[in-house]
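Sharing a chain and its predicted structure for anyone who wants a worked example. Both blocks are below, sequence first, C-alpha cells second.
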Amino acid sequence: MGSDCLAGGDRGARVLRKSTPSLMRAAIPVAVFGLTLARYNPTLTPSLSYSSPDGNEPVTICYRLGLAHPSGYPLFTCLRSCFTFFPIGDVAHRINLMSAVLGAGSVVLLYAIARLVEISRLLDAFSALFFAFSRTSWSHAVIAEVYAPNLLVVALALRLS
C-alpha cells in the first residue's frame, strides 16, 4: 500500500514538472501584456485631444457610428464603438483605452513573432517591451488614432503567415 501511494505521488510530481514549462510559456506573454498596459494606462489621454491632426474625429465618429473622412476605417469604427459601452470614464477615455489595449496586444504578438526565431524567451520579451516603450509606439497607443489597432492587424498577419 505504501508503494502505491508513493507511485501516485511520483506521478503527480511528473505531471507538475510537465505542466511547469507550459505555465511559463503562458506567463511571459501575459506579463508582457500586463506590463505594457500598466505603463500605457497612466499616460493615457484622459479625454478629447487636439494633439493629432484628426483632432476629435475618431471619437465622435465612433460614438455616432458615422463615417470618417476617406478611407473611413470602418473596422476600427466598429471596434471602437464596442469600447464605448464600457463603464469607465467618458467616451473619449474609453476609445483611448482601446488604443492602449490593442497596442499592448500588438506587443504580445511581436513577442510571438520573435519566439519563432527561438533564441531566448527573456530576450524576446525584452525586445517586445523595448518596442512597446519606444517613443513612437507609446505615443500612438495612448490616443484615439488608427496606428495602434493597425499595428495589431499587421502583427497578426505577420504571425499567421
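Comments welcome. Residues 1-6 have pLDDT under 50 and may be disordered.
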